[in-house]
Structures
1.
Amino acid sequence: MKRLLRTLAAGAALSAVAAAPAAASHSWNNYHWARTANPFTLQVGDNVLGDWDTHLRTANGDWSASAVMDTPTVPGTSNRRCSMTAGTAQVCNAKYGNNGWLGLASINLSGSHIMQASAKMNDTYFAGATYNNPNEKLHVMCQEIGHTFGLGHTSEDGSSQNTCMDYFSNTGTAATSTTSTHPNQHDYDQLAAIYSHTDSMSTLASSPATSAGMAGRSDARAYRTQRTDRGNHSEIMEHFSDGTTRITDVLWADGPRPTVDRG
C-alpha cells in the first residue's frame, strides 16, 4: 500500500464525497454505524500509553455526553499498527516516523455503514516541542475519535469554532489555550442528526468485541485510491476488491505532503 500511495499525484481530485463539510453541517458524508436502536454503544479500544490514556478518557467522556451514543473505553485488541477490529474504534499512539502526519482517522465502510475504525497519534511529532502540550494532544485525540463516529470538520480556515472538530491548532502562542479541545453542542446536534434513523442490522461489536477485520481486510486488494488535499488535512479513499471502502482523514504536522505512510 505504501508504494501505491507514493504514486498518487498530489493534486488528485476527489469527488464530492471528499468535500469538507460546511460549518452548518459537518456530517462526514453521512457515514455512520449501523444499529437497530438508540442510544447505542460503540466500544473504543484503548491501545494508548502514558498521558494519552488521560486524553483518551477525557475525549470518550465528552463524546459519551451525546444523547444518541455511549463510547466506553475497553481494553484494546490491536497492535502498534492499530489493526482494526470489527465493530469497534481502536485508538493508538506510537512513534510512526517522520512521515508528515500528526494524526490519522480511518473508517472501513460497506456502503455508508462504518464496519470498523481506528485513530492514531504520531508520537514522533508529539514528542517535539511544537506539539507536546496537553491542549494540542486533547484537540487531536478528540478530533480523530470524532471522525470514527462519522463527523467531519466544522471549518477549514484555522479559526476556532470552540470544538475539537475545527482546524484550530493549540500550538505556538495558542499552546496554553484550552479552546477547541472538547466537542460543542453543534457536534452533539450533528450526531443526533446523523443517527436520527435506525437500521435493520448492526455493525457494532457485542461484548467482548469480535476479532475479525470485516472491511478492507489484509487479503482484500485496493484496486483504486483517490486523494484530496485541503489545508493541513488530506483525505484518502481506497476501494477494495471485496466491495468495501476505507477512508482516511490525515492531519499533517506541518502542512500537506505528497505521500502518506499509514504506519
2.
Amino acid sequence: MHLIIQGSDVATADLKHLARLCGASGIGQVSPNVFRLVDASPAAGIAELCAQARLDHAFVPADRRLADIRLLVMDMDSTLITIETIDELADMNGVKREVATITAQAMRGEIEYDESLRRRLALLKGLDQSALKRVYDERLQLSPGAERLLAQAKSHGIKTLLVSGGFTCVTDRLKTRLSLDSTYANTLEIADGRLTGKIVGRTVNAEAKRDELMRMRDAMGIGREQIVGVGDGANDLKFLAECGVSVAYRAKPIVREQTTHAINHVGLDGVMNLFN
C-alpha cells in the first residue's frame, strides 16, 4: 500500500512524522502539495495527525492505475457544485430555513429521502419559473477542483455521469458547460409559469441513482472495479456501493464511514491523486 497525503500546505515535519508512523520506505512528491509515502502500513496516530494538520490521507493499493478506470460517477449538490439547489430555490420563495432543515436531515439519513423531497417541493409551490435560471446564474459555483477533475477524466478517456436528486434545469446546463457524457435528475413540474410543488416522472432517489449507474455500466460493458464514485450525502450511498473506488467529498459522517476514501480539505481534483 501507499499512503497519499495532500493538503493546501503540507509541512515537512508532518510529512516526516507520518512516514515514521506508517513505516514508509520512501517519500515521493506527486505535485507541490501531494505526496506518496511508499510501502506504508496503517498505524495509530495517522488519522489524528492529519486531522490536526488539515491534511487528507488515503491508503491506496500500489497497483491502482487511473488507466484502468472507465467511468466517473458524481453527485451534484454539495459535491460537483457548492450549493444545495433546492435550498437556494427555497430562499427565493422565502422558505430557505424550513427547506434547509429538511435537506440537512435527509443528507444525514434521518428522514427517508422521498418524504423529505415531497415536503421540500411543497414549500416551493407557486415559485416563478424564472427562479430556476436565477439560481444557476447568480448562485451556482463549481466546487474547487471540479473542472480540473473532469478535464483529467476526459484526457484519460473516462466517461462521466452526474446523478442528482436535484433538477434538470441545472444538470442540463452543467452537461453542456462541462461536457459531461450523461446526467440524470428530477424534472420539476411547471404550470402557468410557476412551480407546482411536484416533479414529473420517477423520483431520483438513492435507488434511482444506483439504477442509472448500473444502466450505464452495463451499456459500457465494464465492471465495478472500473468505476469511481464521488458523493456527500446518505442519498449517495447506494450508488457509491456499486463503485470500486468510492470517495466521500466533504461528506456527512454516515458517508465517510461507508466509502473507501474521504476528502475533507483539498478540492475534487484530489480524487485523481488516489491513482498512479
3.
Amino acid sequence: MNIAILSRNRRLYSTRRLVEAAEARGHQVRVIDVLRCYISLVPGKPEIWYRGRRLGGFDAVIPRIGASVTFYGTAVLRQFEMMGVYSVGESVAITRARDKLRALQLLARKGIGMPCTAFAHSPDDTAGVMALAGGAPLVIKLVEGAQGQGVVLAETAQAAESVIDAFRGLDAYFLVQNFVAEARGSDIRCLVVGDKVVAAMQRTARAGEFRANLHRGASARRIRITPEERETALRAARVIGLSVAGVDLLRTERGPMVLEVNASPGLEGIEKTCEIDVATRIIEYIERNARPGRTRTRGKG
C-alpha cells in the first residue's frame, strides 16, 4: 500500500516509528507536512497539492496532527477523505476529541464515567459553578489547553475563585472539574487500536505536581488493567469515533473515570514503558481495514 503520514516533523519519535513499521511490512510511505498542503475545491474533483504537485495514489492516511494546527490539519484530512482515501483517524473524530467540552458531552450522554464537571465562560455565580463540580479542591482547565497546559489545581474555594476570575479576564472558556484525590496523582493511559487496548501504562506525577504527563516529569510503569477499565477505554474511543486513541483513565472507588480521549497519542512513552510495538499494531489495523472510500463518520454529535 501507499501510505501518507500527516506530520510536521518526520524526525518525531511517533512519526519515525510509523514509517519504520510500515516499510518493514513492505509498504511505501510518504511524510507530508500538512501546513504545506493546499486544496482545490472543485465540484466532483477534490484535489490536494503539495510542493507544486498534485497528491494522489494513496491507499491510506495516518493523521499526526498537532493541537495547534487542528483546524487546517483536519481540513486537509477531510480532503483526503473526499478523495476516497482511508483514514485511520477520521477528521470529524479528531475535531470532537480536540474540543474538550464536546468530547465530555458525548461521553456523558453515553453514561461513561468521568469526574463531575461544569463548563463556563463568564459566570455571574462563581460559587454555583464550583458547587456543580462538587466544591474544592477543583481542577480548572482551559478548553483549548493541551498536554497539561492551561490546567490548574485549586485546593481551596478561595483559590478556585481567583483562578476562575483570571480565566474570565482572559475571555476564555473553561471547565471546572472535581479533583479525584483517591487517584493519588496517577492516571492510566490506554492505547486503543480498533477494538483492542494494545497497551496500558500507569503514569504517576512527580512530587509536588498533580499532572501525570510524562513530559512534566511523571514516571510510568506497565500495568494490567481490569475488564471494566478495558471496556471503558474502548467505549470512550468508540463514542468519539476514533480507531486509534489514547484514553486516559482514573481508578476510583466508583469505577474507572475518563479524563480525556487523545486523537493523536504519542508512541514513545507507551512503547518504551510497555515494550510493545504499537506502531506495527497500527499498520496491521490499516492493512485489515483500508479500502477505497471506506472512511465514514462514526457516532454522532
